[in-house]
Amino acid sequence: MLKIKFTYPITVLIYITFFLIGTTLGYNPYGLTILISFFEILKQIRNNSFFTALLFWNLGFVFLSCSVNLFDKVDIVEKFGIGVYEKTANIFFLSSITIIFFYHYFLKKQKQKYPVEVEVDNSPFTSIKTFTLLLIIAVYLIFIIYNGQRAFQIMTMGRGTFVVNSSFGGQGEQGTGRSIIITLLYYLTEISGYLLPSLMFLILLQKLRILYALAVTFILSVPIWMTQFFLGTRHHILLSGLSFIACFVLLYHKRIRIKVRTFVIILSAGLFFSFAMLHIRKVGYANIFDFSNFKFEPEKIGGDPSGRYMNYVVEYFDTKDYRKGVSTTGLVFVWMPRSIWNNKPQGFTHWFLREHVIPGYKGYNSISTSYLGVPYSDFGKTGVVFASILIAFFLAKIDCYTLRLKSAFTFKKLIIVAFSLALSFYMPRALTAVYLKMILVFAFISVLSFSNRLVIRIPDE
Q1: What pLDDT does residue 460 have?
Q2: In sequence order, what are the residues at sequence separation of 6 or more whose Cβ sits closer than 8 angstroms to the Cβ of residue 456?
Q3: What does the alpha-carbon distance between residue 157 and residue 151 come to, in Å, rounded to a whole number?
Q4: What is the DSSP letter of 357?
Q5: In the chain, where are the structural domains located?
Q6: How far is CA 105 from CA 12, 352, 395, 435, in A?
Q7: How far apart are CA 286 and CA 280, in angstroms?
Q8: Global confidence as pTM
Q9: What pLDDT digit, counting tens, does each position of 304-341 carry?
Q10: How many CB atoms lie within 10 A of CB 92?
Q11: Is pLDDT of 116 > 60?
């Protein structure tokens, strides 16, 4: 009997055939693309691979990039036309299929180059130093004081009014009025909020049993998560909580068997809190329990408009020349304060809002055009393919590394890998933000590891 081995080239070919047949028969291209992503998610779950970069990427791709275009088709087609809608859908499919194919190619190559058995950190056990402990305590207090007062102001005056009047982002159309100190303080508190729960857990784990370490970490993390919740930006609490969960799972992956229903519960809880934050931002904290005007809107399942804004990008560059690297330059140097380089190219999302979405806009905002906005604006579909290959390499690198984690490793490696897993979910929204966050996280953890090369060992009990 003939047996067909479904290698990934064959699988990808099946996906492409499925998509082409489906679109020819008139099915929504986003629905077909989402279905392919769910096929990949189910394959990961079947292999008990609940915490992989590819799984989180596919979840983010579905909820942040595609869901709004799937459920809001009528409105989008009415505004942009069916041609732009379908072209944008085909671009997302091209990216998705490229990432799936090259992810498995790179993962196979990484496994051949770095066998699982080689990754064992034989460094002698080191305890937490006083300087490192004091530094973490100081960062914790700075986060609570700085963001606590900002959260209180948002609760009293409303998020929209606060952001317009805030010292961060509200001074000058291009942010030139923002001081370096304010910028550093903002990013320090943002990044520390992502990492502090995981750092505190790892430190406590060296002194306490796991249940006590978890309990104390949770108590200390509640002020962080509540502050992030009241600040009203969902991805902050997502990256903080998911990084902590990923850190725990990586440490105890040999003892944990996550069941499908547990995974579904976690995902459902995330969607619930996402809707809750959207509701609060819409009605305000004073009317938090007022559901009289509540309306379930399927297009808000992902709660993110970045996929929708990609239609603007496709529409604009149907008649305009590509930017030939200008957008990418703005992304690469996003970390540099404008007070140092005043002529730094504008970020694409800042420029594009004023150029096309709302011509002549004078406010402080920028928009997210999904992870494809920047590469497509520079080089069209060629840019999309190239960016997708880079993303596939990043995802494969992270997943290969998680397979090689053993019973002892530095907290720098563990924290960065855990955060990268969480960031994989957010990545489909915006490359610029992801790139900047990775730089800042690496710098923050490097400072801590320079002062104390802490080796984490999983307790035997």
Answers
A1: 46
A2: 202, 205, 206, 251, 408, 409, 410, 411, 414
A3: 10
A4: I
A5: 8-118, 130-296+388-457, 301-379
A6: 12, 35, 11, 23
A7: 9
A8: 0.84
A9: 788 889 999 999 999 999 998 888 888 888 777 666 77
A10: 24
A11: no
